[in-house]
Amino acid sequence: MRIGLFTDSYIPRPDGIAIAVETMREGLEQAGHEVHVFCPSRPGVRYPKNVHAFHSAPSLLYEGLRTSWPFWPINTKMVKDLNLDIIHIHTPLFVGQFGMTMARKLGIPVALTCHSDLDLASEYPALVPGLYVLFMFTAFSARDWSNYWRRRHVRTNGQKYGSDLAKRLYGYLSDNVDAVIVPSQKMRSQLLPYIKESKLHHVANGLDVSPAPGDYDRPKIRNHLSIPLDANVLITTSRPVVEKRIDYAVRILARLVKKAEASYLIIVGDGPERSKLKLMAKRLGVYDTTRFIGAVSHEEVFSHLAAADIYINPCLRETFGLSIAEAALMQKPLLLFDEQLSELLDDGKSGYFVTSVADAAAKADNLFKNPSLLQAFGQHGRQLVRERFSREHHTQGLIDTYQSVIKKDAGKTRTKLKYRLRTR
After folding, report:
1. Residue 144 is part of a domain; what is its CATH number?
2. Do 374 and 286 belong to one domain?
3. Which residues contact 62 (CB under 8 A, 6 or more apart)?
4. Is residue 232 over pLDDT 80?
């Protein structure tokens, strides 16, 4: 197959969507398919031939995000000439909307992945005007005005306004795509009231499951971080933004230090909350035992995981939690606050679901005091990830979905949009 992946976030941006798309590209190409990625350009980055980067500028929506306007005849002709079999959209912004427009123009099937927890929209009221703009833009991209008014104005009872609007947007997008792919049962449950069940396809994210703790020099890494070899070490690799709730990890460390002085916390990632976290660590008396690593390459994330003992993720807004799967792969017992992520954790076997800072600190202390249990949890978690979330397993799920969509599309009569190609 010739597959087009349209995304507004791509490597080297270190977020879940970018890494998921790159993992997808690698897996599909290894399976023998021709893959083209369409994304915003990034300063100083040169992409390979099959990655088509559109001119971009810094986005006002999110720190580090780039915005492109790909709706130019030269780009339309370029996509047409690739003779794609299917288009796969990963974001509802301009590049994703361009993918929808091209699928409509060329009369080819299109899939959409929802990578974001849509309940997050209620925590960012400033997003609401942008969601209305995306509604309008989708109507132009898909030429679908009949569903526009129904999806925009009919509200589902019991939902907060922002999250309801975001889900209705994805419902509207689903009216104009052939399949909606969700990476977890959590996301399937969120979207099911808004999208036809027949269009929903659960394909868990995948990752390269070859990295192992033994690949990294744990004593050397700890020495570099000025952490004693016999210390108890927590780690989180989530970006310091409000919804990730990294402050919980700092509070957990403060409780552990009262029980065992040789306790440390590694925070990998950079974001707007980092300075606040430093102030909190100073106020709680754990600044000297907290390591603020900042942004690092994806490979360096694994080296820091190798240096730690337990992984903690306080976030309630993960859709799949690629960073969680990576930690489990590196044999780190998990402490998770979101019980909806049950696919990633066997409670009481590879880690624990926790309900509060006190609960997390108590369970972490128990694991530190029982090295054999800590080791058993780590081994079970690695086995779980290798069985459920390998890149090969993920790739086969995508291929099955694509082939199903293409097969159904073969019997359809699509109306192609008329357009002119202008050349200079």
Report:
1. 3.40.50.2000
2. yes
3. none
4. yes
Q: Are residues 166 and 225 in the same domain?
A: no
**CA-to-CA distance for 37 and 56, rounded, in angstroms?**
15
DSSP run (H or E) holding 201: strand 200-202
Distance CA 367, CA 365 (A): 5
State the number of CA atoms in the 13 A half-sphere of 206 facing the CB. Answer: 22
pLDDT tens digits for range 160-218: 777 888 888 888 888 889 999 999 999 999 888 888 899 999 999 999 999 999 999 99
The pLDDT score that the predictor gives to residue 154 is: 47
Q: Are 237 and 305 in contact (CB under 8 A)?
A: yes
The parent domain of residue 182 ranges over 2-206+390-409
For residue 350, name the pLDDT band (cuts at 50, 70, 90).
very high
| 243-249-252 Cα angle (round to 5) | 140
- pLDDT value, residue 419: 42
Number of structural domains the chain divides into: 2
Can you say how many angstroms the Cα of residue 77 is from the centroid of all Cα atoms in its chain? 31
